[in-house]
Amino acid sequence: MMHHPPSPPAPMKRSVSVRELNGSCIAWARNAAFAAAAALTLGLAAPAAAEGVDPSAISSGENHMCGCGPSCACGSGCGCPDSSVIGPPRLAGVEGFESENVVLLSRISLGDFGAQYTSGNDSWGYTSPSGREYALMGLNSATAFVEITNPRDPVIIATIPHPSSLWSDIKVYGHHAYVVNENFFGGGLQVIDMQGIDDGVVTLANTVTHGGSLRRAHNLVVDEDSGYLYLCGANWPTSGLVAYSLADPANPVYVGAYSSVYVHDAHVVTYTTGPHAGRQIAYCSVGSYGIDIVDVTDKSNMFRVSRTTYSDLAYSHQGWVDVERQLFYHGDELDGDSVNVTTTRVFDVSDLASPQYLGWFTSGVDAIDHNQYLHEGFLFQANYRSGLRIFDTRDDPVSPPQTGWFDTYPDGLGTFFNGAWSNYPYFPSGTVIVSDIEGGLFVLDPTFALNGGVPLAVSYPDGLPVAVAAEGASLRVRIEGVNGRSVVPGSGVLVVTGDGHTATIPLVPTGGDEYTANFPKLGCVSEVTFYVAADADNGLTVNDPLHAPTLEHAASVTPARAGGSHAGPRSGAAGPVGFVCAVPGDIDGDGVVDFADMSIVLNQFGLSGPSLPGDVNGDGAVDFADLNIILSNYGANAW
Asked: What angle do CA 223, 228, 230 make, to 5 degrees?
């Protein structure tokens, strides 16, 4: 559902639950009162009020946390997320998540990180000089560092604690990560050294607090081209932009501040061409005041170039400018009160002094927008309850088509603060991560969304089996080319796993788009998982189910004879690779109980001691009990 009319849809009021509203207001009032009291108790001076910002909000640090600018008050329906609004941590597992053209590679739940973590927040990424890739995941009281070089097998490398808060933000410059959080007493600006991360070493190198004055910030931004870091929504010295030089990355040096207005988030870039070449420009989302473009080149004289408002402005939250510095994609976190679908607005910013509204587009679903990033013409959005959304801006940047999505929050849509917080699409491998408030870290593959969709459709004319016979079973498969693609002849396989063994069986064409494959002989395996894979003519491999092998089809195994006790061929034996099920009495492991096994027992008959091959029942002696096992299973073989 893509549009670009003169203004967004007709207003539709969202439904706010009494629990959400009351919990939000109480949380805001409680936090504000606590903060004010703490400030008085500790003798902390409140900074001067910035333009259009309630001084009490600055002193409490809750203006931006409520997300409603100066209108934040009980009864406003702002929906400030707190522990009474966000959901409990989602249990571990990879099932139940809907998607289109995006593949789930792995997931780390909050519980996997540790029982002490109750919510997730921001995320960012780091690629070491060796090419190994790491996800940086914000948790309520720590930052986690996770290797995802093998995205199907993520490994938690380290966690660096910070004071507990629902909010934290992470950015990277060189081999240092920078972290801020919203705890009132806070942790300042953390500087974390990742130079030794390939060896499992991550250390807290520095904490910048300016003698305890800097305690918290809502966000931070790094302009990698210029080497400057900016705090947004900090408690000191201003809630605007606070600039630091990263000339010495381990020791950020304060160099200036922009204090005209509270800044919620920003994207700071250095212009290298055109009339603004050499200028450092911040695209600032400033809550209920809209979008400010600020020239931050001279840190002693940062100034606003322009301010832009728009229809249904509620809370200007975050945005991203394209690499050509022509278009700015922007999200309003609270316009869900006025429009009933996630709405992204597009502005022409070629003239910094006079940005022009061009239009808007939506995902077509009801969810709050949060954080979005552009990469190689694709816009990656983390939109709370609707998860990751991907749009292709290359041909129609004002009304781009949605090419893929992955819903990290399977409990339903709606304008509530649950689900996907942020994403990071800049890994060289193409892997994308999503951080989810309740769900933890999702590791995703967006390849199909970036390449015209899934190129093959796999179906099963006879349906999927729920049970297969141990002596083998046949599976009919249909594979059709879609989205202008076709299957590569001879590329189709059936991959079957059971009891730790995996067999790959070629699909045999039977005419048209149909194939057959025979399950291997399965021995005593009680259950198998399986998937079908084939290559398309554009070089992409399609698995069915799409998320395989993270998620596979499953079927029980019907034993070949009573009790299911029979031998199966071993890996490497003649014929199809199958699954080993040791039969009592098959001492020599050749897959059959025969005279050779009986000879071993007879030759050792009467002996006792450890590790005797003829001691079939393991009681320490070779006797009639062992011989009886041989005779009972004599002749049992593969099938």
From this structure: 85
Same domain, 493 and 553: yes
Q: For residue 332, which of 353, 347, 352, 322 has the smallest C-alpha distance?
A: 347
Per-residue pLDDT averaged across 114-122, rounded?
97
Residue 401 domain-assigned (yes or no): yes
State how far the Cα of 180 lies from the Cα of 215, in Å rounded to an integer.
9
The length of the chain is 639
Q: What is the pTM of this model?
A: 0.82
Please name every residue paired with 389 in a beta bridge, in sequence order, or none if there are none: 381, 405
Q: Is residue 43 part of a domain?
A: no
| More confident of the two residues 598 and 571 | 598
598 by DSSP, 3-state: which? helix
Chain CA centroid to CA 502, Å: 28
Both tokens of 617, joined, read: 């029942």
Nearest to 530 by CA among 495, 502, 501, 503: 495
Please state the domain count of the chain: 3
Task: With a cut of 60, say whether residue 240 has pLDDT above it.
Answer: yes
C-alpha count within 13 angstroms, C-beta hemisphere, residue 51? 12
Q: Give residue 124's identity as a one-letter amino acid code.
A: W
Q: Over 80: is that where the pLDDT of 372 sits? A: yes
Is residue 445 domain-shared with residue 523, that is, in the same domain? Answer: no
Q: State the number of CA atoms in the 13 A half-sphere of 618 facing the CB.
A: 1
Contact predicate 306/294, CB 8 Å: no
Q: Do 313 and 335 share a structural domain?
A: yes
Q: For position 536, which CATH number holds?
A: 2.60.40.10
Choose among 260, 249, 375: nearest CA to 306.
260
Do 273 and 341 fall within a single domain?
yes
Q: CATH number of the domain at 403, please.
A: 2.130.10.10
Instruction: Give residue 473's domain range.
Output: 456-561
Instruction: Report the Cα–Cα distance between both ends of the chain, in Å, rounded.
Output: 57
Please give the single-letter amino acid code of residue 297.
T
pLDDT tens digit sequence for 452-470: 999 999 999 999 999 998 7
- DSSP strands (E only) in 182-287: 189-193, 203-208, 219-223, 228-232, 241-245, 253-258, 265-270, 280-285
By three-state DSSP, how is residue 64 classified?
Answer: helix
Q: Has residue 571 been placed in a domain?
A: no
Q: Where is 603: in which H helix or E strand?
A: helix 595-604
Tell me which H or E stretch contains 260: none
Give the C-alpha separation, 204 to 280, whole Å. Answer: 29
Indicate if 533 and 384 belong to the same structural domain. no
pLDDT over 50 (residue 210) = yes
Rounded to an integer, what distance in angstroms lies between the CA atom of residue 482 and that of residue 536? 10
424: closest CA among 138, 201, 89? 138
Measuring CA to CA, which residue among 590, 594, 543 is closest to residue 570?
590
User: Where residue 604 sits, what CATH number does that domain have?
Assistant: 1.10.1330.10
**Same domain as 587, residue 521:** no
- pLDDT tier for residue 523 given thresholds of 50, 70 and 90: low
* Same domain, yes or no: 375 and 490: no
Note whether residue 612 is domain-resident.
yes
Show the DSSP H helices in 391-483 as ranges: 447-450
Three-state secondary structure call for residue 409: coil
Give the rounded distance of the alpha carbon of 356 from its chain centre.
33
Q: How many CA atoms lie within 13 A of 304 on its CB side?
A: 19
Q: Do 420 and 483 belong together in one domain?
A: no
Residue 503 CA: distances (Å) to CA of 264, 468, 495, 510, 522: 54, 15, 6, 21, 10
Dig out the tokens for 358 from the structure. 């061009």
List alpha helices for 13-113, DSSP H.
18-42, 55-60, 63-66, 110-113
Phi first, then psi, for residue 173 (nearest 5°) are -140, 120
